[in-house]
Amino acid sequence: MARDTCDGCGRTVTVAGGIANLWTFGEDDGSEGTAMTLEFENGSDHLLCYPCIAALPDEPTDADVARLEQVDEETSRLESS
């Protein structure tokens, strides 16, 4: 599983799939990532951890991603404007 950082809060994340897990089977098959890449309507994309995804509004923008911050290991939030 590839490791990277969340574009929102900066926490270390794992991305499911990829060539590293091509021949791995069973419990550690690489299907359990902690982040997803979201593509916005303007064509930009952001690798975000699940807590940051949960903190985003229904129609997020790049500005919303820039306002994300980590609260603790399981929670993120949007900074106050």
Structure notes:
The chain is α+β, with helices and mostly antiparallel strands and 81 residues long. The chain has one domain. Helix content is 14%, strand content 33%. Strands 1-2 form a two-stranded antiparallel ribbon. A two-stranded antiparallel ribbon has the order 3-4. A two-stranded antiparallel sheet has the order 5-6. It is globular, with a radius of gyration of 14 Å. The N and C termini lie far apart (35 Å). The relative contact order is 0.22. The mean pLDDT is 82. This is Small CPxCG-related zinc finger protein.
Strand order of the largest sheet: 1-2
Q: What is the H/E string?
A: EEEEHHEE
- Major sheet characteristics: 2 strands, antiparallel
The level of helicity is 10-25%
Give the number of DSSP strands.
Answer: 6
How many H/I helical runs? 2
Structural class: alpha+beta
Average pLDDT? 82
Please report the distance between the alpha carbons of the first and last residues: 35 Å
- Shape call: globular
Radius of gyration: 14 Å
Question: Which segments are poorly predicted (pLDDT under 50) over 5 or more consecutive residues?
Answer: none
Please, how many domains?
A: 1
User: Beta-strand level of the residues, as a percent range?
Assistant: 25-35%
Oligomer: single chain
